[in-house]
Amino acid sequence: MIRGSLVALVTPMTDDGAVDQVALERLVEWHIAEGTDAIVAVGTTGESATLDEEEHCHTIRRVVEIANGRIPVIAGTGANSTSEAISLTKCAKTAGVDACLLVTPYYNKPTQEGLYQHHKAIAEAVDIPQILYNVPGRTAVDMQPETIVRLSSISNIIGVKEATGDLARIEKLRAEVPADFAIYSGDDATAREAMLLGADGDISVTANVAPKAMHEMCQAALNKDADAAANIDANLSGLHKSLFVESNPIPVKWALGAMGMMGFGIRLPLTRLSAHAEAPVRDALAQAGIETK
Asked: Are 93 and 110 in contact (CB under 8 A)?
């Protein structure tokens, strides 16, 4: 089981929206050096919704190649079309990822039975470890704990990223899913508490800009050192909030640009961070001890 800080990696882009291969390598190497526990490539923070299938698969392959076995790589392969999700998951398996992360189908709003059948079909079609991803604020569908528990009996569905921020739901899941079924927070603001309640890690946006601190905070929380985790998290709290001042990944891509880690490229329909929102993001970076240019 992968535990700790799993970065929901941005996909760096040039000003014209093309994937920036040089910056991608820089980011992967930086995360390895800083102690990030795993990389999630081309998840929703990686703008999976606006990368075409060829770009999507190529970016996953490049992250695997750059990582070269030094860090686990999880590929975002979810889609609101079951057949497309199967195709992306097959591509990720061929690329050599350690697992896939599959967001619930967005916009078409399936029933709980539809969610079960969707994920069951992908699991049966592609023999690779798969992690469910529940983020109703972005998808307009909420996978209920009962459905997650039901899916946890499928052998290659090995975990869930629960991004509701509902700590009671984390407790309920921990009590009802198998002990080896991974539970990841998908909400940085409540991730520390989630891990203290039994979650196995955090699939994190904040880790994009503060990888070492997020790794250390997660390790403290997993070790049940509540005071140490709280002390580290206090410096990150501004980031947990400000990186969502506009739709993710707009603020975090701007932050990485301001840090000099990559350019400011982002793909329509998302746009660069509004000028009035730059100050709170810059202030939160400073609070976390991160220098900007």
From this structure: no
* DSSP SS3 for 253: helix
> Residue 262 carries which DSSP code?
S
Name the CATH architecture for the domain at 4-235. Answer: Alpha-Beta Barrel (3.20)
Active-site entry in 106, 116, 133, 184: 133
Q: How far is residue 130's CA from residue 173's CA, in Å, rounded to a whole number?
A: 17
In which band, very low, low, confident or very high, does the pLDDT at 280 lie, cut at 50, 70 and 90?
Answer: very high
Q: Given 106, 116, 161, 184, which residue is catalytic?
A: 161
Longest Cα separation, the chain: 50
Is 133 designated active site? yes
Domain ranges in the chain are 4-235
Please give the backbone phi and psi of residue 8, each rounded to the nearest 5 degrees, phi first: -85, 85
Give the integer Cα–Cα distance in Å for 236 and 203.
Answer: 15
Active site residue 161: yes
Mean pLDDT of 48-63: 97
Locate tokens 């899941």: which residue? 173
Tell whether omega for the bond before 249 is within 30 degrees of 0, i.e. cis: yes
Instruction: Tell me the per-residue pLDDT of 199-245, one tens digit each, with 9 for 90 and over.
Output: 999 999 999 999 999 999 999 999 999 999 999 999 999 999 999 99
Distance from the Cα of residue 140 to its chain's centroid: 18
pTM of the model: 0.96
Residues in CB range of 239: below 8 A, 6 or more apart:
188, 206, 209, 210, 284, 285, 287, 288
